[in-house]
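Ticket #4471: structure output looks truncated?

Reporter: J.K.
Steps to reproduce: submitted the chain below (134 residues) through the standard prediction queue, then opened the result file.
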Amino acid sequence: MSNKEILKNYLSSLSTLVDKLSDADFTKLESGDYELSLKVIKKSTKSNSPKEKLTADSQTLEMVIDELKLVKTREDGISVIESHLKNKPSLELLAKHLDVAVLPSDKVSKIKDTIVDATVGARLRSGAIQGKEI
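Returned output as attached by the reporter:
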């Protein structure tokens, strides 16, 4: 790449960054107490391959919840979740919808177990306490 191209890319990036500055940022620069700094970072590249749907829609979440209400064992609950929700963002969305606390650091298997315990497990424990056959 020639020096001309490098300078052109540099100035283009600088122009884009200046456009993103807010009025408050310009005011800070005018005061003299702040200065601009540059950092070289790699641009994110978008692949052309089709990606799996990132999150589940509300209809899918409702369907999973309805199926979880019908299952009789924790293992069946895990199977229901695995058949409909394929990734961590979808599981986190379901947990949020059910008002089940999960941590961002939780692994997928832990999130599945927590959701099943809060739905199927709670119903099984309640039935056992009441002496009901579930």
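Triage note (M.O.): checked the attachment and the full token line is present. The chain is about 65% helix and 0% strand.
Status: closed, working as intended.
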